[in-house]
Specification:
Radius of gyration: 21 Å
Number of helices: 10
Largest sheet: 6 strands, antiparallel
Distance between the termini: 34 Å
Structural class: alpha+beta
Helix content: 40-55%
């Protein structure tokens, strides 16, 4: 029995260590984390940290950049986060404003969220207008800055982080998004900040236009974006000026609900072993 107990304790310790590594890599942000940095922060031997990191990579929970050798959160983390969003976070809160916007405007609306240096579309709400755009679908993943919602989130970051994102995505931008060079994206970020909303004038798909605004978290950082897409003729400058304040209003509503949820969580009594702690 003692041997079983020791094995269980060792297994729990390994899980604790793996969870710590996941958190440390996540907190490293878009630039990722080096092995040496993780060893220093978690107070484990280098061989132990390397072994655990490789196991997490094999499970898809972490990803290692082949060039920089830095570790980043992996694709399975996104999948788990998406599953959790049905209960927590921005997705369920945003469903009402997305449906309302689509119903009122007749156009397609989207919720996107940032994941590292990428933007993920997590919800698409169809409008009633018979001609629809097909540039973005739920589950689509693009570098930050590609598309209206994605550009809105990139523009809401500080300048130094914008540069980190552009540097991290330089390879894929050159390979798959040649129209979005770093100089072009810098100009788009500047225009977005001046205009007050992001505009995609058919750069991803000719004739498919969109505008977007960021959703900010408690710390002011972008946690998502709402966007509206339509054919070019339905997004004239006049209509952009009409729709942008409506998008911003719904984004503010989502931000308020996120604040309420955070306050509610803080007020919940903490428990230990199933009992309310003093």
């Amino acid at each position: 029995m003692q041997v079983i107990g020791e094995a269980a304790a060792g297994g729990a310790q390994s899980i604790d260590r793996a969870a710590t590594l996941l958190l440390l890599v996540g907190r490293a942000g878009p630039s990722g984390a080096r092995l040496s940095e993780l060893v220093e922060q978690c107070d484990l031997t280098k061989p132990t940290v390397r072994r655990m990191l490789l196991a997490l990579v094999r499970a898809g929970l972490l990803d290692q950049d082949p060039d920089t050798r830095r570790y980043h959160l992996g694709p399975e983390i996104y999948v788990l986060g998406t599953l959790a969003s049905a209960r927590f976070g921005i997705h369920p809160i945003s469903l009402r404003p997305l449906a309302q916007l689509s119903q009122e405007t007749g156009d397609t609306t989207f919720l996107s969220v940032p994941r590292g240096t990428y933007s993920i579309c997590v919800h698409r709400e169809e409008g009633s207008y018979p001609i629809r755009v097909h540039a973005l679908h739920a589950g689509d993943r693009h570098p930050l800055g590609i598309g209206a919602g994605s550009l809105a989130m990139l523009s809401a970051l500080p300048d130094d982080e914008v540069e980190q994102v552009l540097a991290a995505n330089a390879g894929i931008l050159a390979d798959k998004y040649s129209q979005y060079s770093p100089p072009v994206l810098r100009a788009l970020v500047k225009e977005t900040r001046v205009r007050g909303y992001a505009l995609n004038p058919g750069m991803m798909l000719p004739g498919s236009w969109a505008i977007g605004v960021p959703i900010r978290g408690l710390d002011g950082r972008p946690v998502g974006a709402l966007s509206i897409a339509a054919i070019e003729s339905r997004l004239s400058e006049e209509r952009q000026r009409e729709l942008a304040p409506r998008l911003a209003k719904e984004a503010s509503w989502v931000e308020a609900r996120l604040r309420d949820a955070a306050v509610g969580d803080e007020r919940q009594p903490r428990t230990r072993n199933g009992r309310v702690s003093a």
